[in-house]
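[Automated response] Your request has been received and processed.

Submitted sequence:
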Amino acid sequence: MKKNNQINRAEMCAEFFGSMFLVMAAISPMILFVSVLECPIGVAVIADAVAVAFVLCALIEIFGSTSGAHFNPIVTMIMTLEKKVSVTKAALYVLVQIFGGLAGTALTHLMFFNEVSGIFTVSNSVRSDYIYLAEIIGSFILVLAILMLVKNNSNKISIIVGLLVGGQLLATSSTMFANPQVTIARMFTDSAAGIRPIDGLVFIAMQIIGALLAYAVYKFMFCKGDQDEKINN
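Generated structure:
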């Protein structure tokens, strides 16, 4: 029993710290490059993509063998549907992911305290209309990629997911949040990385839709009928 408790603690800590550092990677470059270095917003977005790609790759390598390195409630949701994670564990994962993300926002603001309004500030950054579609697209490709990589037992998941997220950050109109806990964390920053809460809630809905669409496509691609036909042939 004691051993199981230790494993659970390790998993929860991995999801908490992974989510925290992921959010720091998403917010910090937007403060550093815009407010401190006074670079154009385009340069800051490129820097943000590079930072997120590199940090996410490292975090998956660090925590992957401990918790699966979800750091993302929609990934946890899909892994639950795949019966790779229990419902109870999934609920705990999502909870610590959200708190980890909020801790990431707070620590980022503490690092750049002279450049922000406070530890937590509700964002008024508008992200609406056609940008919502980008969150469906970004979440779809992220979840489908993860499902395919896991199915193929890839040993390059960290590199591929890191590159995919960094690339899609530059290739989507929403700069690809594709992560409800990151979206919640970014509701509480007044930096250029922020999103106002009403848009953030829509983003989360779009992310869930994108993830479920990806899961539906994945199940269609590898449905039982196709597998049986392959065996018979």
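Summary generated for your ticket: Confidence is low (pLDDT under 50) at residues 1-6. The first helix runs from residue 2 to 36.
If you did not submit this request, please reply to this message.
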